[in-house]
Input
Amino acid sequence: MDTVGLKPDVILRHLGVHSQSVIADFGCGPGVFSLPAAVLTDASVHAIDVRKSMLDVCGHEAQHRSLHNLVFVHANLELDRGSGLPDMSVDFVIMRKILSQNENKQALFREAYRILRASGKLVVIGWSDGSMEGLGSGEHVRRDQAEALGAIVGFEDPEEIFVNVHHYGLAFTRED
Output
């Protein structure tokens, strides 16, 4: 595996994404995970972002690739029920490098827990220690902080997943 490049399709397959998986990508940005997820599943991929411009970029790329299972959601995930998705309606939630961009980090974990089905997985990807020098590392959310945020809302014992040398990856499973 390449130790520098981010390989979303490899990560998603490792986590068990399959043709019937319903996915929510929190803070989807330009579609780094949404687009590969839409290739791996025939079910819906909810690409959610507070920035309309990112949804437009992701939507344009989805159209270019003829991906028709993406649902674009303009939403503030820090608000109560911010995704607008029903309770226990998705199999996977992805949070890639968005914790440092949000003030109410716990709200994102609460929302992920709410919409995940039993045995569903929350995937958190963040910057590894020392990888954000010069990139506003004061807002950096460390791996242990992400684990603690998950524990507050009911996630336990996350699986560590290898992303690359610059990022950590955690996979939390909803147990109930």
